[in-house]
Design goal:
Layout (H helix, E strand, L loop, with lengths): L15 E5 L5 H7 L5 E6 L2 H17 L6 E6 L14 E5 L8 H10 L6 E7 L1 H10 L3 H4 L9 H10 L2 E9 L4 H10 L7 H16 L2 H14 L2 E8 L3
Parallel strand pairs: 1-2, 1-4, 2-3, 4-5
Antiparallel strand pairs: 5-7, 6-7
Helix pairs in contact: 1-2, 4-7, 7-8
Length: 238
């Protein structure tokens, strides 16, 4: 699923985009659709980079890209192997909630971004995430190790202290929140729940087909139930 709204962002041919903590490469591939950009997907886990590579190669075969280039890098978000001010955009989606030293991670993703350019950060939203933690003590470990729940105002403050300013935000994936609540209630590590599996099939169908009805419901409920908080920052200075 794509959390970042690329229509809020402008790119130019030759722009370098970093997707840090790229996972299976969903945002790396979406950024690759922009016109003649070079996108780098970076992650600390080799398995994730292999999945991202498969996704990007598939996009190449289908011609679903903007005519640019891509590469992958094994990288720790708290010690990025890139020089200062070298990217026109940095995406950090659903990453910071996993990082113990998240303030160092914020300093790093701002350091490698050029002044005046956008940083997109998404994290689980406070309200839906708090319910998940309340319903299951196993949720944190089952969901790849969440170490904190973010308060929106506090997170914006930390990112601004790191050298950025907020220019837009929204919430995303409202229809995913009940799925996680149900999963937590029945056991986050269970794979034999018919109800959870049927809901998962619905979400997969929605992601692949993008039907108008579920898209409308998702947008309608996002302000209230959106699972992700998505913030668009701009690096100050320069």
């Amino acid at each position: 699923m794509i959390t970042v709204d690329f229509t809020r962002l402008k790119t130019a041919p030759g722009d370098r985009i970093l997707d840090i903590g790229c996972g299976s490469g969903r945002h790396t591939a979406e950024a690759y659709r922009q016109h003649r950009v070079h996108v780098i997907g970076a992650d600390l886990i080799l398995k994730n980079l292999k999945m991202a590579r498969q996704r990007l190669v598939f996009h190449d075969r289908l011609g679903e890209h903007g005519g640019g280039t891509w590469s992958l890098a094994a990288s720790d978000v708290t010690a990025l192997p890139f020089s200062d001010d070298c990217f026109e955009m940095v995406i950090c989606s659903e990453v910071l909630e996993h990082i113990p030293d998240h303030e160092q991670a914020m300093r790093e993703i701002v350091r490698v971004l050029k002044p005046g350019q956008p940083l997109v950060v998404s994290v689980p939203r406070y309200f839906p995430e708090r319910i998940c933690w309340m319903l299951s003590g196993d949720y944190v470990d089952a969901n790849q190790g969440h170490v904190r729940i973010y308060n929106k105002k506090a997170l914006i403050g930390l990112l601004e202290e790191a050298g950025t300013r907020l220019f837009a935000l929204h919430y995303a994936h409202s229809i995913h929140s009940p799925y996680w609540w149900l999963k937590c209630l029945l056991g986050p590590s269970r794979t034999d729940s018919t109800t959870v599996n049927l809901y998962h099939r619905l979400l997969a169908w929605d992601i692949m087909k993008k039907p108008m009805l579920t898209r409308f419901i998702d947008r309608l409920l996002n302000p209230l139930l959106g699972k992700s908080l998505v913030m668009y920052m701009r690096k100050t200075g320069g």
